[in-house]
Automatic annotation (TrEMBL), chain A:
Name the record gives this protein: BTB domain-containing protein
Superkingdom, taxonomy of origin: Eukaryota
Membrane-spanning parts: none
Organism: Elasticomyces elasticus
InterPro entries: BTB/POZ_dom (IPR000210), SKP1/BTB/POZ_sf (IPR011333)
Residues annotated as domain BTB: 17-84
Organism taxonomic ancestry: Eukaryota, Fungi, Dikarya, Ascomycota, Pezizomycotina
SUPFAM superfamilies, per the entry: POZ domain
């Protein structure tokens, strides 16, 4: 099927596989990638400024490999190596920042955000957080918010000194003072907000989920339940029918809901 | 990571970059090091170090290189720029170019190095600078170039201008050389201009603060203004106006080119304004009024130069005030000269010849002068029309100016309306002979154009009617068709009202032809085959349509007008016959016979005069109706008998003035002396006696005996006074009619408004005199058409139904 091969090569992906017309060599350690400027330099200001051979240092070959994959395919795999996928994604954010690869950081953060709910061990998260604070700019709030999305939802147990499951996490907080400081601030902030929270149950029938949020007359809150898939957007009056007065000790999910009708 | 260690790597690399030895450097290594510094939150420090590095490099190495190119000799020459033109111009220029080259090089190197540094420091620029809102390191480095190089002083001496000021001087000096005709290195200057364009006066990078604008352009415009002011002075003194215009055009083009090739295009409109101000706006008046100015150009038909003047002034002012003013003045002067010449021509030979030449000859001379005036006016108009098309791009403003001043001088000639009608008359009788249709068309157009200028359209109408009447009745028009075309054009131009009566005259003529033919048939049917029958051609004129002098024989006193002309029986019979025929056709109409208007062919037999050896001779005489009546009297007279003027008048009732005129034609004019007068003199007196001239000898069988002053010619003073009076009367009626029309509609109106509206209404016919309007209003009040409104603050009137 020679015809088919020619057609396949005519796409960027095809060129990537065949390495035909490669005009740029990227080296790292003992690895070399034969790539095409048209793919790589178009998506990265760093590579745009390089010449025909560029030798990288201090990066992970697995990450660079997938970064190049992304440049050709618009996507990469975070579970194709021995690195924990969460750490892998954070490292991808770091190289995206370092080499100014268009849209790669957003893609990586998106992948990371999905992993927040996958219930993986906290030690992987601890590593991811540590790498993030060491290799990405403080101004990358999106990445930090995503990581906190995981941390805040289970701050109680993560920080419980008697909880043996999360010792790695607590060890990490000691090594990463900047993270710890911000975590403390966020928790304090949450505390302040929770004092004005009420508890509502999911409007889905036979759903046991309850959530907490704050609400006043004249405003509304939308709710997408992860358990039963119920999707609701009601104003204050209607939500009162779902209000439960008991304080749920450990809500199944905490989700602030999307406030609407509010001036902020 | 140790900052100092890492920075040392970077600093050494930067030095190599600036020294153009960067080929061995690893971009990735430098990038990584800068990245790590910023990632470790030392971006602030890195930024400051880089800036410091650049400052050091510029103010040591680069400043030295630039200052080296500014030897004291050059600085002195640039300071005392007036002497630069004389001594060592070449050297100054070479040194200046070396300085420009060095500065260009420094700037280009700086840009190249900084763009390499920007690549290395990409992470700092995009993360640290973006987060802390600092300008990019490139921007900062450009400001440093401005501060360390352009604002530095040679040898640290503040009494010299800084490099930026020196740069201005050098560039302006080079431009001066180019303006004086030298070749300069435009690219070199342009490179430096780009540098000024790329730098700002302060760290706020706003458009208005570009160094090009704040430092260079202002000085360029100021020195250019100075240059062009001096040039304008010199050109006005040394060149003629045409050369001045060409030079100015050339200079404007040059400055445009200079902006394109040497400076920036954004300067084009500004420098154009400078040149336009200095060479055109402030000079136009002097230029136009100079000896070789517009008057000279017009006199010598310098159309190209005039076009240049127009072009120049149009650049600075769409109204072209100076050119317009000058043209108006010149047209008015030329027109006034024509007016004076016409008056002079009319009066020229009058004093000495008055005694010898008959008054009629004088009148003829004046008629010639009048026709010449019109021809001259047309020629003048053609000249300016051609100029308007050729030199002034058919510009509307100029057109209006030409129209206005033409109208002004034409109307300042008191007899312009009469002259124009005479001009048409002359052409209708002689002028169009042998002309093609196209030529006639052009002539008619010219006549209409002239008519457009005449303000007193009513006076023109009066004369035109009179002249046309005579042409029609005497069959003097070469082409009735052309006459009708003329009327048609007048109708298009001035409207129905103006031509209604003129058209009526043509209608009468056509009708008269039918009447004549019809009468012939009528006579034939009566069966009266009288062999001595007289052929009758008749013109029936409607009295209101035709000019008054045609329909009234203008008798000297009222008594005469009541007397009826006595026709001999043969004639009387025909008259009666026609009247019968006419009354059959149109009952209730009065026919009034005009003996002064008609002509008759008479066969006359002159007897043998043996004493002189003359045989019997037959002649056919064409005479006026009155002359025929006179001649018929002599039929019944024995040979040798005479009649006195009084006797003739008694037997014919011809009005005295007509009688005198006819007798002059018959007895005084040398070639048509059918009668002899005693005593023989030019004047005709009551007591003169008249004899039949049996010895008359004519060269041709047919003899036309013209009545003195029968043709159209200029009016003599008496006629003119009459015409004026007639015209004033008709204006009076027109005013009254207008006033009544207005008041009928408005009921009440203030005096001022009434006068204004009356003038507006009548403007197309003539320009009413305000005093005349006042008098007419008074008269209408007396006749109780209007009344004054009592106790009204301003004087007002009310219409009385």
């Amino acid at each position: 099927m020679q015809q088919g091969q020619v057609v396949a090569e005519m796409t960027l992906e095809g060129l990537h596989v065949s390495k035909k017309f490669s005009d740029l060599k990227v080296r790292l350690g003992d690895r070399t990638w034969d790539v095409h400027k048209v793919a790589v330099c178009m998506r990265s200001s760093f590579f745009e400024a390089t010449e025909n051979v560029v030798t990288l240092h201090e990066d992970q070959p697995e990450v660079i490999d997938q970064m190049i994959e992304y440049m050709y395919k618009n996507d990469y795999k975070d579970d194709d190596s021995d690195i924990d996928p969460r750490v892998f994604n954070v490292r991808m954010v770091a190289v995206a920042e370092k080499y100014f690869v268009d849209n790669l950081a957003q893609l990586a953060i998106g992948k990371l955000a999905e992993q927040v709910y996958e219930g993986m061990s906290s030690s992987g998260w601890a590593d991811a957080i540590e790498v993030a604070y060491a290799t990405t700019a403080d101004s990358n709030h999106e990445l930090r918010d995503t990581l906190f999305g995981f941390v805040i939802s289970r701050a109680g147990s993560l920080l419980d000194p008697d909880d043996p499951e999360h010792t790695d996490f607590r060890a990490m907080t000691e090594r990463t003072p900047r993270f710890s400081l911000v975590l403390a601030q966020r928790l304090a902030d949450l505390q302040r907000r929770q004092s004005s929270l009420s508890t509502y149950r999911c409007p889905g029938s036979d759903c046991n989920v309850a959530f907490q949020t704050w609400m006043e007359a004249g405003h509304g809150v939308s709710w997408d339940c992860r358990e039963c898939g119920e999707s609701a957007a009601h104003d204050y009056q209607i939500w009162q029918a779902y209000r439960v007065d008991l304080i749920v000790n450990e809500p199944v999910a905490f989700q602030p809901g999307n406030h609407f009708g509010l001036p902020w | 990571m140790d900052f100092e260690q890492t920075w040392a790597i970077l600093a050494s690399a930067f030095t190599q970059i600036h020294e153009k030895q960067a080929s061995k450097l690893s971009f990735e290594e430098l990038y990584r090091n800068a990245y790590k510094i910023v990632l470790k939150k030392k971006g602030d420090e890195l930024y400051l170090r880089v800036a410091e590095f650049e400052r050091d490099w510029l103010s040591s190495e680069i400043e030295r290189r630039i200052h080296k190119e500014l030897p004291p000799q050059l600085m002195n020459a640039l300071q005392g720029r007036s002497s630069a033109g004389s001594v060592g111009d070449d050297q100054v220029r070479t040194q200046g170019e070396r300085f420009l080259r060095q500065l260009k090089l420094a700037w280009e190197d700086h840009q190249t190095c900084m763009s390499m540094l920007t690549d290395v420091l990409m992470y700092m620029d995009r993360v640290y600078c973006a987060d802390t809102r600092r300008p990019s390191i490139f921007t900062t480095a450009m400001s440093l170039f401005r501060d360390c190089i352009l604002r530095s002083h040679v040898r640290g001496d503040d009494s010299w201008p800084d490099i930026c000021g020196t740069l201005n001087h050098v560039i302006l000096d080079q431009i001066r050389m180019e303006r004086d005709g030298d070749f300069i290195d435009k690219h070199l200057i342009k490179a430096n201009v780009y540098m000024l364009e790329g730098l700002y006066d302060s760290h706020h990078e706003v458009e208005e603060e570009k160094l090009y604008l704040t430092s260079f352009e202002y000085e360029f415009l100021a020195s250019s203004a100075e240059f062009y002011r001096a040039l304008g002075d010199r050109l006005l003194k040394e060149s003629d106006a045409g050369q001045y215009c060409r030079e100015t055009r050339k200079r404007i083009d040059e400055e445009n080119d200079r902006c394109r090739s040497t400076l920036l295009e954004s300067t084009t409109p500004k420098i154009q304004k400078v040149v336009e101000d200095e060479l055109i706006r402030y000079r136009m008046k002097d230029l136009i009024e100079s000896e070789s100015g517009v008057r000279f150009m017009i006199t010598n038909e310098r159309h190209d130069d005039l076009a240049l003047v127009f072009d120049l002034e149009a650049r600075v002012d769409p109204r072209k005030p100076e050119l317009t003013k000058a043209l108006q003045k010149i047209i008015l002067e030329m027109g006034t000269n024509l007016n004076d010449a016409a008056q002079l021509g009319a009066a020229a030979e009058a004093p000495e010849d008055r005694a010898k030449a008959p008054a009629d000859k004088l009148v003829n001379q004046q008629t010639v002068a009048a026709l010449k005036w019109v021809e001259d006016v047309l020629e003048l108009k053609d000249k300016f029309d051609a100029m308007w098309k050729q030199s002034f791009q058919s510009d509307q403003t100029i057109h209006t100016a030409i129209m206005r001043s033409s109208a002004e001088f034409i109307n300042s000639h008191p007899r312009c309306a009469e002259y124009m009608s005479l001009f048409i008359d002359d052409n209708m009788k002689k002028g169009i002979k042998g002309k093609t249709e196209l030529e006639i068309e052009a002539l008619l157009n010219k006549a209409i154009v002239l008519l457009r200028y005449v303000q007193e359209k009513d006076v023109f109408e009066l004369y035109y009617k009179k002249h046309l009447g005579k042409r029609l009745l005497m069959g003097r028009s070469l082409s009735i068709d052309v006459e009708k075309q003329m009327i048609f054009r007048m109708k298009m131009e001035l409207g129905n009202n103006f031509t209604a009566k003129l058209e009526g005259m043509f209608k009468d003529m056509t009708l008269s032809e039918e009447l004549t033919a019809g009468y012939k048939g009528y006579v034939a049917r009566l069966g009266d085959a009288d062999p001595r029958r007289i052929d009758l051609a008749i013109n029936v004129l409607t009295s209101m349509t035709w000019p008054v002098e045609t329909t009234n024989s203008a008798p000297d006193d009222a008594r005469e007008s009541r007397l009826k002309t006595i026709y001999p029986p043969a004639m009387e019979r025909i008259r009666q016959g026609f009247e019968n025929y006419y009354k059959e056709k149109y009952s209730g109409r009065m026919l009034d016979w005009k003996g002064n208007m008609g002509t008759v062919d008479v066969k006359v037999t002159f007897p043998k005069v043996p004493s002189k050896g003359f045989k019997e001779r037959r002649h056919e005489l064409n005479v006026s109706t009155y002359a025929m009546l006179i001649l018929l009297l002599f039929n019944d007279l024995p040979s040798g008998a005479s009649l006195s003027l009084e006797e003739i008048q008694a037997r014919t009732n011809i009005p005295t003035n007509e009688l005198v005129r006819n007798l002059q034609s018959l007895a005084v004019a040398p070639k048509t002396r059918i009668l002899l007068k005693e005593p023989m003199s030019k004047d005709v007196k009551d007591t003169d006696k008249f004899f039949f001239n049996e010895g008359f000898m004519g060269k041709f069988h047919k003899v036309k005996i013209g009545i003195v002053s029968a043709g159209n010619r200029i009016e003599n003073d008496r006629e003119r006074v009459e015409t004026e009076k007639k015209n004033n009367d008709s204006r009076g009626y027109a005013i009254e009619a207008a006033v009544v029309r207005i008041m009928k509609q408005r009921k009440e109106l203030s005096h001022q408004q009434l006068v204004t509206e009356t003038i507006t209404q009548l403007n197309s016919q003539f320009k009413p005199d305000v005093n005349m309007i006042k008098k007419r209003i008074e008269s209408l009040i007396e006749r109780e058409y209007l009344e004054r409104i009592e106790d009204s603050p301003s004087s007002s009137y009310r219409y009385l139904a």
